Amino acid sequence: MKKVLISFVLALLPVLESGASVKIGSLYYNLEASNRTAEVAPFQEDKYEGDITIPAEISYQGTTYRVTAVAESAFWDCGGLTSIVLPAGLESIGPSAFLACTKLTSLKIPASVINIGDLAFCFEGALTSIVVDERNPVYDSRNRCNALIKTATNTLITGCVNTIIPGTVTSLADNAFEGCVLLKNITIPSSVKRIGRAAFGTCVKLESISIPNGVEQIGGHAFEYCQSLKQLQIPEGVKVIEEYLCMYSESLESVTIPSTATTVENGPFPGNVKDIYCFAAVPPRSTWGYTITIQPYEEIDGQFVFPATLHVPAASVEAYKTCSDGWQEFKSIIPLTSEETGIQERALGSGQSAEWYSVDGQTITGRPTSNGIFIRKGADGTVKKYYMNRK
Questions:
Q1: Structurally, how many domains does the chain consist of?
Q2: How far apart (Å, rounded) are the C-alpha atoms in residues 144 and 168?
Q3: What is this structure's pTM?
Q4: Does any domain span residue 14?
């Protein structure tokens, strides 16, 4: 009888089911009994809102748990969240943990946080301040830059409207500034080699961006939905123009493609673009078999063409007109002018001994052996651009 009574009493006690979360205060938690740790779990009813302080410890049924994590998507789309205080001892912030918390204005990362998932702080439209504790061994916000940087790789993970990208950063991560709707202009330092996918996607007020020649890769969708951007100059050194680079950027009027470009993937430019300046001597192609597409098409004399003017090296006009990769479908294909190219002379493979450089500043041993635009420094110190065309 005694055993039956004990079993009956135990059955009445609240039991935490596997995978279930419990509400303590205003937050839900997933509890791990084996090591007495807890993670902040996604809301189950009303979204989290207001000013929230996550405690360092919680107590449940007489047991104390250390709060060490914020679960994946825990605060996702909590547009009413106005501030968050993360506790000392927090170790992990899951993917999309604070995605689209559009009223969050400041972010402070404790020294204990050693793992931050993808898109953890993405589309934070009001974010103006990002500070990482100086003792953090994995992340930093060096030089008071208002950015979240992964120290070991010098990769900027999350930026905001007040970010000044340090000259020690070598990469902008995927989605680094995505959804930063207050950002109007930004300068990328010459130390940066890679701009990640959708890095500036949906920066709807972005009016200007300075990209240095040191950048070698720009990911797809990088400037998609940048609806205030009027000009985009892709720097020399970039070889691949990835897909949907600046689609839906409705104010974009001109795009400059460098002479180093060999590949242009599908749908990189919006239909409203008026001029594309392509300095590549050989028409870039697509690795995926797509053709260069700009929409909407315009019908002229029964033919559908891209409603833009394509400016290319004079010696390459015919190559663009007769290629089969989509370039031939531009409304107008005309030669670049000397003012646009900055070329003072045209070399055909002869000349005095001199120092030769690629347009992105790389030294060339001997004389250039391929077609394209090159820089020549003469013995008298003069510097000129040359267009090499060896037929």
A1: 2
A2: 13
A3: 0.82
A4: no
